């Protein structure tokens, strides 16, 4: 005999399928690398405003492969990512389609969207240096380039060089110099590591607090996430042990990355998909979306959260178009192997 839970699930499924047939034109389906809690409140707001039902599929890995495998039959209308990497890969594989939207072009600065409209950045973050308050004098480190300076020998912590965040940063060094320079730089940084690359961004800041290293690479939003972490209050101490360094303020600016969205190649609800991305780039959504993860809004003129204003309000970000970094990520990955960065 089926349990009541099974019956309930079956009933819900029946209702859902009836609804989806009846409202086929009034829904939009998202494949999201972003965690649900970061976007759910906004999606509800969108549904309330427009009557369009949003169906969200989240997953850490494999969404691109799923999209590719499903091909024309994919229900996905929007690919939502937490970084430029998968957006760029999806674009290269022809899994997403160009969108011409005056609204999106006006809302999102040029360097945060594809020149052909195949992807759009929706929130921004910088890859910064977390520097020990006790052991690094303010102003002592000012450029990514200086991380290769022997004065930092045995004093730097980072996660794997192969992680997508680091690949984008290394790609930006290739873009602003050249491959040969980047290789030498990466070798220099490797020589300065306090330990074999490991863990995630937050655990590097922990290592700074513990005295394992003095400088750590990490995305800027982790500072906010640590500083306000009531569930794991020890993370507040990690955050309080460091100063934030936004590198290259006197030249190109700190390396920037985005979370973003693209409309899929075979989107069954293409118009709704565009509407939703326009909503996420709107004034109303931008503050909430950025604040949910301590990120920066991409829309010019959108106020920052109080936390961002207090700790990272004014800095210069690199304005290179992230499309330029796309192909260089492969070069970066090769260099990481070549110098044995993770060994
Ligand atoms: Fe992250």
Tally of separate domains = 2
Q: Just name the CATH architecture of the largest domain.
A: 3-Layer(aba) Sandwich
Give every kind of bound small molecule, once each.
Answer: fe (ii) ion
CATH topology of the largest domain: D-Maltodextrin-Binding Protein, domain 2
Distance from first to last alpha carbon: 56 Å
Backbone shape: globular
Counting DSSP E segments of at least 2 residues, the number of strands comes to 10
| Low-confidence runs | 1-23
Which homologous superfamily in CATH is the superfamily of the largest domain? Periplasmic binding protein-like II
Q: Mean of the pLDDT scores?
A: 92
**Helix run count:** 14
Q: What share of residues is helical?
A: 40-55%
CATH classification class of the largest domain: Alpha Beta
Using only C-alpha atoms, the radius of gyration works out to: 21 Å
Main pleated sheet: 10 strands, mixed
Task: Please trace the helix and strand order, writing H or E for each element.
Answer: HEHEHEHEHEEHHHEHHEEHHEHH
Query: Which structural class best describes the helix and strand composition?
Result: alpha/beta
**Oligomer class:** single chain
Keywords: Signal
Protein name: Fe(3+) ABC transporter substrate-binding protein
Family: Belongs to the bacterial solute-binding protein 1 family.
InterPro entries: Ferric-bd (IPR026045)
